[in-house]
Write a structure and sequence with these properties.
Blueprint lengths: L1 H25 L2 E6 L7 H12 L10 E6 L7 H10 L4 E5 L2 H10 L5 E6 L18 E5 L6 H11 L5 E6 L6 H15 L2 E6 L3 H14 L3 E4 L3 H5 L1 H10 L4 E3 L2 H5 L4 E4 L2 H16 L16 E5 H6 L6 H6 L2 E3 L1
Parallel strand pairs: 1-2, 1-3, 3-4, 4-5, 6-7, 6-8, 8-9, 9-10, 11-12
Antiparallel strand pairs: 10-11
Helix pairs in contact: 2-11, 3-4, 5-6, 7-9
Amino acid sequence: MHRRRFIALLGAAITAARTLCAQQKAMPVIGFLSSRSPGESAPNVAAFRQGLSETGYVEGQNVAIEYRWAEGRYDRLPALAADLVGRKVNVITAAGGVPSAQAARNATPAIPIVFTALADPVGLGLVTSLARPGGNLTGVSVMVTELTPKRLELLSELVPQAAVIALLVNPNIADAEPTIREAQEAARTKHVQLQVLKAGSESEIDDAFSELDQLHAGGLLQASDPFFLSRRGQLVALAARHRVPAIYDQSEYAAAGGLISYGSSLTDAYRQAGTYAGKILNGATPADLPVHQPTTFKLVINLKTAKALGLTVPPAMLDLADEVIE
């Protein structure tokens, strides 16, 4: 009897294992390709999972996520994207800006791709139009380039005496030149001189701030870039050390001690990307999902940093602020 019972239990266990294996194979897989690192991306990944849950998907229950992190090394992205394609994932989420989206697009013309936080997906040739993307890509645009003039305007209001303003940009990203053009046009409108500084590595960031001193710049406009965001501690510390008022595109900088930020919410962008990934798993096609654009933008002012720099924030700007850090 014991032997028969053992054989019966063993057979049941084998059947359960086979059933579980079949379920795991049937579970859809999302490839999450990011130019950033997992630690700093935790809030964004949580927002992405929230978006997925809004379409009925929960990681580990009815969807699996394969994460690939470039850790700020953009040159690693093509191989990471190719690996996800080789694993035949159902959807690729290209997180961390333009480099990830381009690497994913170059790796596959067939697997649906959802990008996050792109400035100009049409200009980059990733989609045909915002309303009708037309291919295997769609996602979220955060309008970072378009907001460059507004950031320069805000910075000029903070430091109206500044005759020279510097723009710090990463030359290794595709939207560097459009950002420079927007900033140059805005500087001409404000009648200030714009000096462009370029940095694509930690050491080049240090060099750029050394050059900033020589230019006698009265303010710093920092271009949007995932690598810069991952180095926000270094950038904010250098701005404080060199006593230069700086404006950034994301509130994470102001929270880290930066003077002022103005832009859309990254966590909102990742949540929207999660909903798009879920909709595609439910049968939607990227070509029919319009590129999502933000409708609200957040102004954050760090009064503690302003006081340290000897700046008085205009009352009208304080009234407009969505958050004031004291």
